[in-house]
Design goal:
Order of helices and strands: EEEHEHHHEEEHHHHHEEHEEH
CATH topology of the largest domain: Ribosomal Protein S5, domain 2
CATH architecture of the largest domain: 2-Layer Sandwich
Structural class: alpha+beta
Bound molecules: adenosine-5'-diphosphate, the ligand N[C@@H](CCOP(=O)(O)O)C(=O)O
Number of helices: 11
């Protein structure tokens, strides 16, 4: 049933791959975007904040188009929408901004019409749009998600991240689109490299499931994508090699990059050392970057309420980072 007062949803950022889990493993992060959606007489799209720069505000907008896919799938017609969006997730840096927009659009549109589609269906739709299930799975379900996509359907298991896990991301100022970072990957890999990754990805998932934080550093290494992408991110090769010596439990390129992500024991007394090491290594390569301490987000896409009680910006005030 249509929600005449509209819906307000919050969607987490995500980090994909976590090293060896290329296109399969993702974790939601405590950095968010918000979408307000309401039926309207005439479509109006309002985008707020610097992370929305350059995103269209007409019916070619991704969120609008995906909402229409949901209505079509559910057999209802809602041609005109009022959409508001604000995001703290930096664009095109490997923190899943596109996945959060896709998941947010699917989730909000479905909620607007009374949630006729299951979460499993939304996951299949999101994966078909994004082309890989790792980011969208984490943004939709929260926590750690390991998923398999057969082209039509995604199977997944969601796990609760260990309570001692904290996340440090170092976000370079430059952008690197996922499509560009996929172009440098080889089409074929050797059996040796396949075994290298399967074994580490399996070990990583088991270690995360059982709280074996001591195994994370060795389980997080990768031969499928990081060696090829290292040339796109100055300082990355050195950081992947040495971050553990500076206090990280494990280190990886976040998604397709250029952000680098360290898993850290929140009780560690070496957090400042690690942050300084990561920033200084990038600086030595001439790369300006900012560091941000995050937590795994247990919550995925969430319906916060309706749009009835105030303006979009008033409703999210107090939650946003800036
Ligand atoms: N809220 C949004 N609305 C429309 N398009 C978006 C939105 N957020 C991200 N995108 C699109 O996704 C692109 C970034 O996706 P991608 O290269 O996969 O990087 P990442 O998802 O890691 O930020 C942006 O350049 C933009 O085209
Ligand atoms: N598995 C994908 C993940 C891309 O993540 P993003 O956050 O950079 O969009 C890949 O490694 O290409």
């Amino acid at each position: 049933m249509m929600q005449p007062e509209g819906v307000l949803v919050r969607i987490p950022a995500s980090t994909a791959n976590l090293g060896p889990g290329f296109d399969t493993l993702g974790m939601a992060l405590s950095l968010y975007s918000w979408i307000g959606m309401k039926e309207a007489r005439q479509t109006v799209i309002r985008l707020y904040g610097s992370e929305m720069e350059g995103i269209p505000t007409d019916k070619s907008n991704l969120v609008y188009k995906i909402a229409q896919m949901v209505f079509c799938e559910a057999g209802v017609q809602v041609p005109e929408l009022e959409i508001s969006m604000y995001s703290d997730i930096p664009l095109t840096r490997g923190l899943g901004s596109s996945a959060s927009a896709i998941v947010g659009a699917l989730f909000a549109a479905n909620a607007l019409i009374g949630s006729p589609l299951t979460e499993a269906k939304l996951f299949d739709m999101a994966t078909a749009i994004e082309d890989h299930p790792d980011n969208v799975g984490a943004s939709l379900f929260g926590g750690l998600v390991t998923a398999v996509w057969d082209g039509l359907h995604a199977d997944y298991i969601r796990m609760e991240p260990h309570e001692d896990l904290e996340v440090l991301v170092v976000i370079p100022e430059f952008q690197l689109s996922t499509s560009e970072a996929r172009k440098v990957l080889p089409v074929q890999i050797s059996r040796k490299d396949a075994v290298y990754n399967i074994s580490r990805s399996s070990l990583l998932v088991a270690a995360l499931a059982q709280g074996r934080l001591d195994l994370i550093s060795r389980a997080m290494s990768d031969r499928l994508h990081q060696p090829y992408r290292a040339k796109l991110v100055p300082g990355m090769a050195e950081i992947l090699e040495k971050a553990v010596q500076h206090g990280a439990l494990g280190i990886a390129l976040s998604g397709a990059g250029p952000t680098l992500l360290a898993l850290v024991d929140r009780h560690s007394d070496r957090k400042k050392e690690l942050e300084a090491y990561l920033l200084n290594t990038m600086k030595a390569e001439g790369i300006r970057a900012s560091a941000c301490w995050l937590n795994p987000s247990s919550e995925g896409a969430q319906l916060l309420g309706s749009m009835s009680s105030g303006s979009f910006l008033e409703l999210i005030k107090g939650e946003v980072k800036a």
